[in-house]
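Quick check before the chapter quiz. The format below is the same one you will see on the exam, so make sure you can read both the input and the output lines.
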Amino acid sequence: MRFEVPQFIDVEDKIFGPLTLKQFIYLAGGVGLGYVCYKVAPFPLSWILGIVFIAAGGVFAFYKINNRPFIAIAQSYLAYRLKNRLYIWRRAPIQKQIDKPAPVVVVPPPVREINEKTAATLAKNLDILDSNN
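Here is the expected output.
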């Protein structure tokens, strides 16, 4: 039997044109809050708040830091800021010093003496190798 293995399961589906559902909701929420500010707040403040909300929706929809969505970064930041942090320093117990093993001594192999016949053979080989190059 042959089974198809699903691939690209971490890629979200594009539902609204080139936008995923999350991106569309972030953009729609930003534009909606901008519109509410335009209708409720006085003129100069409504434009400033509207631009801020629309820009925040765009950032949440499209901006990524280290290939992570901005909403994940914002959630991590808020969790870090809002949670209690208590750092307690405790002295580590003193450990007994363990005796180190004796160092390993490496003895080089003994040097062989070269007799005249071996020396002549080596010289001949070196001359042959030198003349080939």
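If your answer matched, good. The helical segments are 21-40, 43-62, 70-82, 116-132.
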